[in-house]
Amino acid sequence: MVRLGFIIALVAIVGMLLSGFAAYRIYDQESAIERIALGRAIDVHASQVQDRLTERELLGRVASGLFRTPAVIKADMLKPLRSSIYAFKTDFQLASWVVRLKADEFSAAQAELAKAGFADTTIRHSDGAAIDPATLREPVDVVMDIEPRNAETVALPGRSLDDHPVLGQMFARSLAAGKPEASDPMHLNGPDGPIGVVLAAPVMTDDSSAVIGFITFSYDLSALMLTNDDMSLFSVVLKDPRQADVELIADDRGKVTERPARPGGEGPTIVRTVTFGARDWSLAYYARVNPFVRAQQVAAIVAAVGLALTIIVCGLFGYVSNSNLRLRREIEIRIGFERRLTAVIDELNHRVKNILAVIQSIVTRTLRSGSDMDVARELLIGRIHAMSNVVSLLSESQWQGVLLKGLFAARAIPHSDRIAVNGPDIAVSARAAQSLSLLFFELASHSDEGLSLVGKHPHIVASWEVIGKGADSIFNFRWEEFNTSEATRRAESEFGVILLDRVAPEALGGTAKRYFTDVSYVYELTAPMDTVVDMNERDRTGQISAPLRNR
């Protein structure tokens, strides 16, 4: 009996030691995985919020940069920007043009408001009281144009925002710093409106010596915070910069409300800082489930099984081994996801830099010194629209290429109704699609819009063919405008000449020529199919976008 008791006691001690060790290992590994998953999810969320904020601040900078005209006291200044600001798809609540008015400019501003059809043309304070120009010593910031125009917003033009308790401080900071500034959280569109923020981007004179006005965009906070659903690992709140003990949180319907900080006496799990409008904003993350609870539960179960059933010690080792294998696979998957995410970010940065470089070249060449600003503005908007259209087509195909005929079907190509397209519908690479989209826009935008010598609009034929097979195949493109001549066709712009003769051919690794025949204008482009299709670029994009596989 003593010997049996000793063996039983020894088995019990071994079982207790093994179960205790297994419970400790399970707890440590499960808690580590939960912490890593929660931290990674929060980092990804904060990065997405920062990207959205950066995109909206970029919209303000781009919009303010397009205002380069001495005539700023107008009530239709947003008209040429409407297509551009909506192309960004940033879901702004309200965009407005705010001009800095002097006392002697009130009459001209009222005349412009009346001309634009606004009912109340009086220059007034934010509370509606009229402003006496004789009492002014400094310019006042007055709303002159809004977008969209509806029953709720038409009453805003003519109001001065300098005395507004929130917006007045924002304009003062932006005026002093000369760069975009964000306001404190406030109710948009009235006391019962959603809580949001307003971004003011200053518009400078041509020599950047003074601020002549502001472009403002207001955004609902729920769209900026990227709130999570009930399946998320955490809930996110925005620390109210006005009150340290108040947090802003969005419910499942996207409505942002205020609540006291530290609900239940518990602080946030993690706090991340994002930047918007030259200000730092704190995002507080509260874990929905304590990351240690599940680890404790699993460890308790393992310990109970080990203590109650000492005869399954081997089974416990098997369970631990299986758990270790499962956890290792999860870690490998997470590491693979992080590597994939890094590759996607690197590829995105590369493509964004390329697109920004193209846009910078477009803006520089279009807005060159001595150019007609109205014509330059229309060309700039059209060229950026063409770039935006091809990026949208590439995004829909996950950057796997664009069908060539699809570039002509887009609204970004002028006079597309007069273009007869003929050729195989091949899928060109992302790089080739961007070059061809700008090429088609330049050709179409310079075609004669008036009547030619024979009394007809130019008839345009765009045709292409692939000659040869395999690595030696050649892509031939031909653009021909009939019923036109060198005397009737508008000459190419400086940017157009560079694009047609050098940029597009070099981007495709080919050659180009343009000339006039007796009855038409012809542009021809020849390039190897390897550069037009670029299977290496498509394979690289396909590998990045392919789903992760569990080994």
Automatic annotation (TrEMBL):
Record keywords: ATP-binding, Kinase, Membrane, Nucleotide-binding, Phosphoprotein, Transferase, Transmembrane, Transmembrane helix
Keyword Translocase among UniProt keywords: no
Domain of life where this protein originates: Bacteria
InterPro entries, per database record: CHASE_dom, Sig_transdc_His_kinase_HWE
The keyword Ubl conjugation appears for this protein: no
Main EC class the enzyme belongs to: transferase
Enzyme Commission numbers on file: 2.7.13.3
A molecular function (GO) term: ATP binding
Transmembrane segments: 298-320
Catalytic reaction annotation: ATP + protein L-histidine = ADP + protein N-phospho-L-histidine
Domain CHASE: 131-225
Protein name from the UniProt record: histidine kinase
Lineage: Bacteria, Pseudomonadati, Pseudomonadota, Alphaproteobacteria, Hyphomicrobiales
